[in-house]
Amino acid sequence: MRISISINGVKHDADVEPRLLLVHFIRDLAGLTGTHIGCETSICGACTVLMDGKPVKCCAILAVQADGSEITTIEGLADEGRLHPIQEGFWECHGLQCGYCTPGMIMSAYGLLQENPDPTEDEIRHGLEGNLCRCTGYQHIVDAVRHASRQMAAKAVKAG
Amino acid sequence: MADYKWPEEGKRKYIGKRISRVDGPHKVSGRAKYTYDLNRPGMLFGKILRSAHAHAKIVSIDISAAEKMPGVKAVKIIQGPGTEIQWALDEIAAVVAVDEPTAEDAIRAIKVVYEKLPHFVNEQNLDQVPAAYRRQPTEQTKGEPDAAFKQSDVVTVEGTYGNDVITHCCLETHGLVAEWEDDKNVLIHPSTQSVSSIGQELARALGIPAGNVHVKMDHIGGGFGSKFPIDRWGIEAARLSKMVGGKPVKIMLERDAELAVAGTRPSAYAKVKVAATKDGKLLAWDSESWGSGGVAGTGMPPYPYVWQIPNAKTKHFSITTHVGPQRAWRAPNHPQAALITMSAIDDLAAKLGTDPLDFFIKNIEMTGVRANVYKDELLKGAEMIEWKKLWRPRGEGAVGSTKTLKRGLGLSIHTWGGGGHASDCDLTIHPDGSVEIKLGSQDLGTGTRTTIQIVVAESLGLPFDGVKVYIGDNKYPPSGSSGGSTTIGGVSASSRRASIDALNQLFEKIAPAMSTTPDKLEATGGKIQVIGDPTKSMTWKQACAKLGTQPLTTRGKHPGKESLTSAGVGGAMMADVTVDIETGIVKMNNFVAIQDCGLIIDMKTAESQVFGAMIMGIGYSLYEEKIMDSQTGRMLNGNMEFYKLPGLADVGNFKVHMMTGKGYDERGPIGLGEPPTVSPGAAISNAVANAIGVRVSTIPLTPERVLAALAMKKGGSNG
Fold first, then answer.
1. How far, in Å, CA of B174 to CA of B689, rounded?
2. Which residue range is the domain that position B68 belongs to?
3. CB contact under 8 A, B24 and A90
4. From CA B400, how far away is CA B655, in angstroms rounded?
5. Do B109 and B240 share a domain, yes or no?
6. Would you call A137 and B613 a contact, using CB atoms and an 8 Å cutoff?
7. pTM given for the model
8. Which of B208, B300, B556, B673 could cross-link with B494 by S-S, CB 3.0 to 4.6 Å?
9. B235-252 pLDDT tens trace
10. Which of A36, A78, A129 sits opposite B29 (nearest CB)?
């Protein structure tokens, strides 16, 4: 099937098998390997990307279902090479160790902060419970999201 | 004579500070490349056909249909007819194809005829283990345990405790890309904990010189002790690549295979009898234990753990099962030993009507050389978790309990060796002032790159970003595998020695120009100056320019002169939980870790290691269990829906305190990967027993097991 998917603002047209998963379209066809696969079954969230602005686990979506949509991956988050405040937060607060879950975790955090720019610790924990990490201890991920939330609010004030 | 000693506390610019990891920007932006992310030119994909049975003889294999499929480039039998398979999902045959779906289709087209043989996969109950699967027991006795238990002034408890098999469940599964650069030389990109040694293993298997294997790895998505060997799929990937003319072949395990064959922490169960005098001094231990790590069985964890009980008797049965073989899992054998020992001792304290914190401290001399460390840590932990304010005797419910929500506190202590692995490194100072260091080490996410950079920058008096670290290549000077918490000791010592030697050579070059002698110089703040006299100085760049055109390179080694690292640490953990006695669900409230690891190089990455160990600990204490089906011999939960890991909402609040300063720093850096993974099972199990008034014998403490223990208590059989 011929489909067209925009990834980080770049259009990708391809003739794909109906069984191709969106995550493979992103990783293999578009060559954007920051989006990972962990569990293969939409449990761990390592494959989280934004589809039309909302976080989705793209290991459980067929590429053909994403035809015509706008996808943002971890590679599309930084603005002209400047890290997004969430990315800065994960670095500064040590919200990662091996880093394999990190892109998905950051994309979910992005979705959470879009809906709730000033989440409480409890809201962060529940908002990100669809993303699993095996090595950080999570506490620093919570700190990273709070850090990002503060930075984004400060930026918004400045811009406003 | 060079002085390699670590700088004194007041003179450290980076060591022990909170420094953000150097690979952070790559990892948060998706630029860090893991093995799984590699897409080499012309790359093909390998898939493996795995055994459907736990124990079977292969009668025949027909690969003809698979070979004829479009897009299939090679098919290879790994274990042929006549082979006796010993665990489900073992490797039978492999396919290489143009893409993953084609390879999967081809795998399904291979026909294998098996002759099924009897299997055994569940060893939880010793009485039900068939004799053929039970090895001759090993027995040890110290002191006079039989006589001690018969003394008139003793209080004794008996109990059965256990740890089920768990897996490593790395988020990036095992695998590699293998390609032949020419007829003789192979390049592999494995997801490995052993960059410097994994190539030797592959060379032996392929019958080629070790120097003909090139190993490269930038980043790894978790290992936890499971990613040392080349593994059969690694060897086969290299052979398959050769079959397709050297083209890169990528094989990554699927999640079900990852859980079934690439990660097993052995089980451990024990019937324990432990006694103390009526006034609360530990006196005697007697355990009959068993466990399995698959087809090779497993040795006895160190019972009794940490406590050097004067009279002790142990008997251990190694059980063989048709389960994927064991791999090292953070602190092999220690978490199991801690759960069984600390639970039994906690039960004893409860029977004596004593607060376990007091009981531990009263007996602390029995922990040996680290008694003072443990004591300090227990007191610190008690303060952090408000033990004395919240704790109530077993079954009464800690402060804050309600009729159905019972709160409890529990504790445990642990130890680990560490020490530094062998490590060589090459440090180069270029005439333009830039500095690089190369070593065949790997960063498992623990921050190895960052810590090496800290050591070199500190030692040369340079800004942190004035140093470049290269690791992840076996063509660099060899450094040990990252296991057993030995990496920081090895790489920090070798890079410290290389730095000091390089600096001394540089001093020799420039001393005449500064009208002094090399021993009068120091490097600090990006300058080289006469010690204590900033007016007589030269910038780092000016000094390096004196090298002319030839860069200065030094080889640092560990072990070497002067002791820069050591082995042996102690830690304590305390858990505060709430148990819903209607549902059996255990909720973590607070979890406190107090850890000693010698001199800390980066406080940020060190603390993170402890936090990470705490979630893995909550995982194996409450959720994780490799559930084997007795009927089919296969893993029932070979996926992440039912092999459960804790999520962000499951873990509660963590507090970590690192022991530093006098008495700790002078021992040099000691690894942290293992120690804090040891105590969680015991601390959480003890907290649950404290909350609900009865021991849940085996971890994970699932709701079903909690409710069963409560029902037993109600039935009166357990008080």
1. 38
2. 35-117+174-252
3. yes
4. 20
5. yes
6. yes
7. 0.97
8. B556
9. 999 999 999 999 999 999
10. A78
One domain for residues A50 and A89: no
Upstream peptide bond of B700 is cis (omega within 30 degrees of 0): yes
With beta carbons less than 8 A apart as the criterion, state whether B90 and B79 touch: yes
Of B248, B228, B262, the residue nearest B46 (C-alpha): B248
Q: Are residues B526 and B632 in the same domain?
A: no
A94 and A147 in a single domain? The answer is yes
One domain, residues A110 and A62: no
Q: Best mutation site among B442, B648, B674 for testing chain A: the one with the most A CBs within 10 Å?
A: B648
- Considering A52, A76, A100, which residue would you say is the last residue of a domain? A76
* Domain stops at, among B185, B220, B252: B252
pLDDT digits (tens, 9 = 90+) for B481-534: 999 999 999 999 999 999 999 999 999 999 999 999 999 999 999 999 999 899
Hey, of A32, A87, A98, which one would you mutate to test binding to chain B, going by the most B CBs within 10 A of its CB? A98
pLDDT digits (tens, 9 = 90+) for B75-125: 999 999 999 999 999 999 999 999 999 999 999 999 999 999 999 999 999
**pLDDT for the residue A156:** 84
CA separation for the pair B58, A159 (Å, rounded): 70
Nearest alpha carbon to residue A136 among A101, A112, A106, A108:
A101
Among A27, A31, A99, beta carbon nearest to B27: A99
CB pair distance less than 8 Å for A136 and B444: no
Is pLDDT at B561 greater than 90 in this prediction?
A: no
Q: How far is B462 from chain A (nearest CA, A)?
A: 22
For the stretch B356-398, pLDDT in tens is: 999 999 999 999 999 999 999 999 999 999 999 999 999 999 9
Is B140 strand, coil or helix? strand
Shortest CB distance from A97 goes to which of B20, B445, B653? Answer: B445
- Provide the residue count of chain A: 160
Per CB-CB distance under 8 Å, the chain B contacts of A94 are: 20-21, 24, 604-605, 607-608
Compute the average pLDDT of residues B639-668. Answer: 96
- Residue A125 domain boundaries: 85-159
For A79-83, B111-115, B315-319, which range has the lowest pLDDT when averaged over its residues? Answer: A79-83
CA distance B274 to chain A (A): 34
Domain count, chain B: 3
Supply the pLDDT for residue B253.
98
B515 shares a domain with B413: no
Beta-carbon separation of B171 and A103 below 8 A? no
Mean pLDDT of A34-39: 97
Pick left, alpha or beta for residue B625 (phi over 0 → left; psi -120 to 50 → alpha; otherwise beta): beta
Query: Do residues B626 and B496 both lie within one domain?
Result: no
Nearest by Cα to B218 from A136, A116, A100: A100
- State whether A33 and B39 contact (CB < 8 Å): yes
**Gyration radius (Cα) of chain A, Å:** 16
Q: Is the pLDDT of residue B629 over 80?
A: yes
Chain A interface, best mutation among B29, B444, B611, B616, by max A CB count within 10 A:
B29
